[in-house]
Every structure is written in C-alpha cells, then in structure tokens.
Amino acid sequence: MKHTYNISGITCSGCQSKVKGLLEKVAGIKKVEVNLLSGDTMIEMDKHISTDTLQKALKDYPKYQLSEIAKQNHAPIQKFEQDEKKTWLQTYKPVLLIFGYITGITLLVEWAQGDFIWMRWMNHFMAGFFLVFSFFKLLNLKGFAESYAMYDVVAKKWNGWGYVYAFTELALGLAFLTGFNPILTNIVTFVVMTVSIIGVLQSVLNKHKIKCACLGDVFNLPMSTITIIEDALMIGMSAIMLLTML
C-alpha cells in the first residue's frame, strides 16, 4: 500500500536524503520517494504504519514535521506551482527594493552634505546593508540559523555560527554607522563575508535548489547569483576601504 505525506523543513538535497534514509529504517517500509521542491513524500509499506510512528523516526530532527495529505488537499503543490510562475523580478523584488532604499538614502545623505565622497558613501551604504539584513535575520533567529546551516561552511560544522553571524552583522552595521575603528571593522567584514561567500558559491555552482538565508526566514528566496553579488559587493567595498586606509 502507498500513502502520501507532506514533510515541512526540507530545504536542500541533504534534507531530502536525510529524511529518506530515516524513514526507510522504519520496519515495514518498502520504498520512500521525497519531492525536494514541494516536500510531498510517497511511502510504500507492507502494512499500515501510523503517522505518529513515522514522525518518531524523524524525532532527532524536529524541523521535519510530517503530516498525511488528504486526497482533496493539494495546497502544497499549488503553492509550488504559484512560485514557479513568478518572474525573476517578482522573485527578487524584496532584495531589489532593499538595495534601492539603501542606495537612495545614502545618496541623499551625500547630496545633503553638498558634495560626494566615495569613502563616506560606501561607509554609509555598508552600515545600511548590515543593519537592514541583520534586522530580517533577527525576526526569526532560529529559522535563519537552520537555513544558514544548510550551506555555510562554518555553520555546517557549528550550528551556533548562524546565531553569532546575525549579531556580527548587527555589530558591523553599528560600527560602520558610528565610525568605530574603521580598519578593524573592514578587516572583520572582509574575513566574515569571504568565508560566507564560499558556501554560497558551492551551492550555486552545484545547482543546489536551496533557500537563501540572506533575509532570514522571512522571504522564500532561492539561492542564486544575486546572493553571490551581495557578498561580493561587501567584500569589494571593504577591500577598497582597507587599501585606501592602509
């Protein structure tokens, strides 16, 4: 007999393999097929196995929540189909709006000063970037940390790094805003963002269909070259400022 379930919390191919492996260990299960994109899971079993028993097989990973799908219930599939129909602009609208606001406001600051100084503008832009992006991460710190651990090279080895990273961004934003020790601030930025971009590059180059955690757990954004550009922009700006100051 076959039953269909929906399992939430599956965000990458690693999650897909983990869930499949855990469920296949349950006595009586013959075959498990997990849809990475929708979370829908087909389980073929010798005899009926209760939903509670299946959920217990995932108990060590509480982010995976299993529920049986009624025949009339197609909500998860519909949700994915709606996402599929989104254009590139609709998908990345939140990121583009944020960059537009930060760029516009920092340019207005320069205009109010009566002249345009590149170093001052970059300093304000980086302050705005880190403060805004840390804000979205802190809205659901646990959700961000779990998503970040799916691809970041440090967070994969130490789950606590996701929590530290969000506050590191907040601290960097405040440091750029107040002008605190510019050399140290830019060195930390360069190192942190360089480490961060490694996991992003690996995911994008390997074409992993994974959720980007750049805006925390608030927006459902796919990992893409946009994420690479974000990190590379911060790396480039911090490098330029360091070269100018040293």
What does this protein structure show overall?
With 246 residues, the chain is of the alpha+beta class. The protein has two domains: 2-82, 2-Layer Sandwich (Alpha-Beta Plaits); 86-245, no CATH class. It is 60% helix and 11% strand. It is built from ten helices and six strands. It has a four-stranded antiparallel β-sheet with strand order 2-3-1-4. Strands 5-6 form a two-stranded antiparallel ribbon. Strand 5 and strand 6 form a beta hairpin. 28% of the residues are buried.
At a glance:
Helix content is 60%, strand content 11%. It is an alpha+beta fold and 246 residues long.
Write the layout of secondary structure elements.
Blueprint: E1 2-8, H1 13-24, E2 29-34, E3 40-45, H2 51-56, E4 65-68, H3 75-84, H4 88-91, H5 93-113, H6 118-139, H7 141-148, H8 160-178, H9 182-205, E5 211-212, E6 221-222, H10 225-245
Antiparallel strand pairs: 1-3, 1-4, 2-3, 5-6
